[in-house]
Amino acid sequence: MLALGIFPNGEKFAMTQEYAAVISATLAALFLIGIVEAANSFKSRGEDRDLIRAHHMAEIKESILGFKNGTPLPEGRKEATEKSLKFFKKRMEAMHTLTGLHLAVTVGTLFFLGKALLDVLHWAALKNPSDSPEIAKSSYIVTLFAVFSIAAMFALRTAMTNRYRRWSARREIAQELGLGVEEAMALSQRWIREGNPPF
Fold first, then answer.
1. Rounded to whole angstroms, how far apart are CA atoms 126 and 112?
2. Is the pLDDT of residue 10 over 60?
3. What angle do CA 4, 107, 160 make, to 5 degrees?
4. What pTM did the predictor assign?
5. Is 61 among the domain residues?
6. Under a CB-based contact definition with an 8 Å cutoff, are residues 49 and 161 in contact?
């Protein structure tokens, strides 16, 4: 009988040929899904980085040219450029923190999945294997952990991507209207609070 349908209640773990077949197939499938999720994370990281950089490229180039030529920017333009670059830096740091967390958890999950799969395969290869309750229990726990972990990382990556896409669309509108960074952020927040943004 299962407690909450997840953890065995008062029952002993034991390896059997049937369980080994089921759990090895499950671990292998989760491992492949984890690899795909890690690959998608690298892809999303690059796309989001390029998206953020593209929206601030004018200010980046202006700052580099001013530094290269030794010509300071006009006071008003300098302040606007510095604010935009500061905002750019914060966006990049936030993106790197979230994608770093995503990759760390995904790679950690892959490690435990790989180890559990190897343990099960090693048990199955033995001529006269014992019940090995520790392998049965650990592979069961790793499977549960991996399911929740991969699902959570997929949700996190999807939320990050959607967030940057919405930010990009609003940034494009702000640039077309000639709004500065702070003014655009204030307008966007007010729009979210009082209006009904279509994205």
1. 22
2. no
3. 80
4. 0.70
5. yes
6. no
